Amino acid sequence: MIENFEQLKKAACKGEGKKLVVADAAGKSVIEALKQAHDMGMISPLLVGDKAKIEPLLEEVSLNEAQIVHETDPNAIAAKSISLIRDGEGDMLMKGKLSTPILMKAVLDKEKGLRKGKLLSHTAIMGVEGYPKLLIVTDGGIVINPDLAEKASILNNAYDVAKGLGIDTPRVACLAAIEKITDKQPETLHAVQLTKMAERHQLQPMIVEGPIAADVLLSEDAAKAKGIETDMTLNADIALVPNIAVGNVMVKSLIYLAGAKVAGLVMGASCPIVLLSRSDTAEIKLLSIAAGCLTSSI
Question: What's domain 1-115's superfamily in CATH?
């Protein structure tokens, strides 16, 4: 099982490099991440976008092996990137400078897109000091306020990421503010229902428990003080958050307050999608590419 990002990067370098299609690669941090990933043997980059803007950036980092598919119109860039994946020219997709709405519209196109399941969702793989292994937090980026069926799909998408990390039966903690079940906090009811669904094999193979408060997930002392016996404390592989706001705040707080490292993937399409924030560093982009390489191989 992969327990940290150094192991993840090493694992992503094994075997043949993945073909990575980048939608509008004309960004410095994007090219820097691609250079590192290419030199480590993770990827073979296929860059879609304005050749006049991309070539100087490639020359700056000496990434001469990258292939460029020239397109200047944003919608054409999105469409071409998707068609390359559909035609088997790429194993995974990465958003470069292209706006997220334009790319996702092309991804979700019913006839020409990359739809696979009913729902796309975001997974953030977190490496945090004090937590003994990588923790997948979902969904803090796509689904705003998921209902029970959507949470089931979110967990099935996260399972594919866990599988890429070498986890056959991931442990899932359904997070809530309290452990008590109350209809005033629907996420507590969802947690119980998802637990039953897992037991009845209505989800991918996983162990689901909840509702669980974040302090019980992250602290043995808190679990003991509350008198809660659970195998999830410092041991969960996936943290299912109630909604996008909780997930977004949780992930960004861990990054900026606890120095966490993170890799982000959108799952549920026919290939992993590296979809990152404009503020994300080249390191985050590199780690996300590595995670996508492992996920695309399962």
Answer: Isopropylmalate Dehydrogenase (3.40.718.10)
Give the whole-angstrom CA distance, residue 60 versus residue 41: 20
Rounded Cα–Cα distance for residues 247 and 154 (Å): 13
Determine the straight-line distance between the first and last CA of the chain, rounded to whole angstroms: 14
Of 41, 143, 132, 84, residue with least CA distance to 271: 84
How many angstroms separate the most distant Cα atoms in the chain?
63
**In what helix (H) or strand (E) does residue 22 lie, and over which residues does it extend?**
strand 18-23
Q: Contact at 8 Å (CB) between 155 and 238?
A: yes
Tell me, yes or no, if the pTM score tops 0.70. Answer: yes
Domains of the chain: which residue ranges?
A: 1-115, 117-268
Task: Output the CA–CA distances (angstroms, integers) from residue 168 to 7, 107, 197, 237, in the order listed.
Answer: 17, 28, 18, 11
pLDDT in tens, 12-39: 998 788 999 999 999 888 999 999 999 9
